Amino acid sequence: MSENAFLTVTDLRAGYGGARVLHGVSLAVGQGEICAILGPNGAGKTTLLRALSGMVRVRGDVRLDGADLSGRSPDTIARQGVAHVPEGRGTFMPLTVEENLRLGAFVRRDRRSLRGLRDLRGRRGGSAVDADLERVHTYFPVLKTRLKQVAGSLSGGEQQMLAIGRALMLRPRLLLLDEPSLGLAPMVTQELFRIVRAVNEEERTTVVVVEQNAHLALSIAQQAHVLESGRIVLSGSAEQIRADEQVAQSYLGYRV
Ligand SMILES: Nc1ncnc2c1ncn2[C@@H]1O[C@H](COP(=O)(O)OP(=O)(O)OP(=O)(O)O)[C@@H](O)[C@H]1O
Ligand SMILES: [Mg+2]
């Protein structure tokens, strides 16, 4: 798979100031695959996603469909079709749901996003951005009923849906999700993961999901990597990792 992988990460090192957090991470994700990153608190999972979206300085090699992304700015990486839904969601609380969604289209690769800029306040124009808004509503019907509501007044689950919906406005080729289940009730989390799976299946969007809820992440992923202290200590298919009881206990914190 590695020869024709869509995302390839080779010997990635990253950190904050002088503090190195990732010590040479290598992985490959095929086009249209879902890859889960598991591991304990402080392992470097968030830092790995930040490194992929250009938010921390990196050494090593990151390629998306052959294009070199290492050392590129977050803006350039977003234009390559990488959408990052960060830990804590990153929605703009004082803006409405619709404004948040339209903002998600700003850095699209196509020039139609300029139209989206003008449409930020909701002027109708039948633009491609409007069409994408409709597309997001089919995945998250609840957002359609909340369009004029400020994001800060949404429930936690709705905010996470908005954050993912906003990322989808970019028409991403690679979707990076950091702990989408954080702080949400199990039912809401299951619904979110069902939608992520649907997006992946219908749009062939490649997904890298960081998740504490290993069981849930492994239920939608094809492959998984366990990160510990900035190194990948285990990689395999989701079934392999789920089936390994010792792994489940020592790294994933549950019994299979
Ligand atoms: N902005 C920062 N400045 C300095 N150090 C940081 C910063 N962010 C994270 N770190 C450190 O980097 C290490 C890895 O953090 P990271 O957030 O990547 O872990 P994580 O696996 O996402 O953990 P969690 O499961 O708690 O979200 C930790 O030791 C953390 O203290
Ligand atoms: Mg984290």
Automatic annotation (TrEMBL):
One of its GO terms (biological process) is L-amino acid transport. Residues 7-254 form the ABC transporter domain. The keyword Transport applies. InterPro entries: AAA+_ATPase, ABC_transporter-like_ATP-bd, ABC_transporter-like_CS, BCAA_Transport_ATP-bd_LivF, P-loop_NTPase. GO terms for molecular function: ATP binding; ATP hydrolysis activity; branched-chain amino acid transmembrane transporter activity. CDD domains: ABC_TM1139_LivF_branched. Keywords: Amino-acid transport, ATP-binding, Nucleotide-binding, Transport. PROSITE patterns: ABC_TRANSPORTER_1 (PS00211), ABC_TRANSPORTER_2 (PS50893). Belongs to the ABC transporter superfamily. This is Amino acid/amide ABC transporter ATP-binding protein 2, HAAT family. It comes from Streptosporangium subroseum. The lineage of its organism: Bacteria, Bacillati, Actinomycetota, Actinomycetes, Streptosporangiales.
